[in-house]
Hints:
Layout: E1 19-23, E2 26-29, E3 34-36, H1 40-43, H2 52-62, H3 76-87, H4 103-118, E4 122-126, H5 135-140, E5 158-161, H6 172-186, E6 192-197, H7 211-224, E7 227-230
Parallel strand pairs: 4-5, 4-6, 6-7
Antiparallel strand pairs: 1-2, 2-3
Amino acid sequence: xxxxxxxxxxxxxxxxxxxxxxxxxxxxxxxxxxxxxxxxxxxxxxxxxxxxxxxxxxxxxxxxxxxxxxxxxxxxxxxxxxxxxxxxxxxxxxxxxxxxxxxxxxxxxxxxxxxxxxxxxxxxxxxxxxxxxxxxxxxxxxxxxxxxxxxxxxxxxxxxxxxxxxxxxxxxxxxxxxxxxxxxxxxxxxxxxxxxxxxxxxxxxxxxxxxxxxxxxxxxxxxxxxxxxxxxxxxxxxxxxxxxxxxxxxxxxxxxxxxxxxxxxxx
Length: 267
């Protein structure tokens, strides 16, 4: 019997076309039809396709060192890039960062850090949120379809509350009431190690988190020994007008998990 090779049909293809090249904000398919690219690799192409400075940097790096696992041996690009990135994070105190290969891995590392630092396993997330497709990250997502469908029972300890925003009909009071209800009927407050939230939801509808609720969360987490994790994977570095979207919320962060914000620029 002949053996056939194909791409898995697990992908849900949004656009039924095959792209072959791109330039700036345009892409072309295999019939040489041009399209304006509103996808941008799902938030990774801040400078569009084939920007000459980026192409030059890729070529120069590929001619010297393509890749090396940093835990096996340190290398100069990592040591140069990470301090420059950390300088841009507007928080007080010492800061260290790491690069991961996807947003889900960044999310899972954030949850691991929260568990180790607090000794608690519970996490609160938000309706409509998206934090990744791996098994722990998918449990944080605030919707069933398409990510949780068919997976069966997921690990316990994840709780969801409404996402309050000036862009929807959810008020701060509704979200606060839902948060308080969790601790009356669902779980002991001392079980919760972290609250994870997107400053601007991506798949949840491009909605900005209520700034006053964000400030409430900051105070709430501080009072109860929880970590506040800002997931900026989909809001994207610089895409909201400032390097990090959480700065629009009036937060003063002293502890912040640096997720993978420059996916396209990782060496």
